[in-house]
Records
---
Amino acid sequence: MQMSTPIPSTSVASREEWGRNVCALTYDELDVQSITRSVGDDGAGATVVFVGTTRNNFKGKVVTRLEYQAYSKLAMKTVAEIVRNAYDDSVKRATNSTSTSHLISCAVHHRLGTVPVGEASIVIAVSSPHRREAFVACEQILEGVKQKAQIWKREYYQGEDEEKAEWKANYP
């Protein structure tokens, strides 16, 4: 009798840190305040935070929960590259203008597994001496993660067979 070996999941919790930056994939609930504090700095005049939450509806259907899966090893590499690019772009903008402002710190935390309605799926926190760079970088990171990261979302609807839950693109 041949024993089958279970296939290991590629959707695993993972974390990468460098300098004052962090990217994390986790099955745990996201602590927005803790993530925000992690980018704090006395030289930061601005901290911009984006919190993406599971909403309760989509195109007239009642959403009961989302489920996220990832190819974690590649997703972490991709998200870290997105953050590094945002930092590099902020340095270039500062170099090409009269401002010397650039990013101080970035944190990107994304949930895996089941995320109930009302809970955070992603938290992005960015600190900078001035607000403009923090806002620009936060949006750049969010759009980059949605477009490029190897993270997939499945949406479950009230009254529908769970086997018919829909996998959704993260970026329209």
---
Amino acid sequence: MSGAPGPGPPAGPGRSPLPCAPRPAAVLQLGGGAEPARPGVAVIDLRFPRGAAADVQEIVFRNFYTAFLSVRVQRPGPAGSRRWVTCLRDYCLMPCPHTEEGSQDYFSLRRHQMLCDVDQVTAVRFILRQPSPVWLHFTIEELQIFPPGQKSPQKDFPSWLSQLTPPEQPASLHGELPDPEKVSTEVQQMWVLTEVIRARQAAARIGRFDVDGCYDINLLSYT
């Protein structure tokens, strides 16, 4: 599953997420009126323990009525500073914000989908948007971040399959094919030998006219 909804959480045996503690979603509100307006935007901040930096390979979560997702990461900047960079912008989680489709699916965002480098990340900010007034509450749940070098568990295959030559490295056949020049020479030799045999057979057919090592003209004249 890569950037698409799935039936269940993709994490499994052999995969260990990075230790992190995401904060609860903070819903943005607009003041200035009798009641604060809700623009349909929420923010979730995530930091790693003790200010550690981590390399991100995959982000896994379960949606809860969030229509669009943007992701920003904090990375080292010049002179030891930290700067925020957008690595995912308005990623669609619900094809239609007013319907249920995609509202509670699991999603996996992989490294190759990011717009920027996601190494040495010290913090991650998730910006959630839900423009539909139908859903009063929206967030993302079961948030997990996985580092590089971890692969999803795969089914066991027969041992003979693992011994096959990979497609990207086909076996070399040059050592098993004969030299074309040598083959051509042998074919020519066989052709010459065939012509010699044919000449000998022709000589054997007219040998009955041979008399004491010479041909009898009278006998040849009757043929």
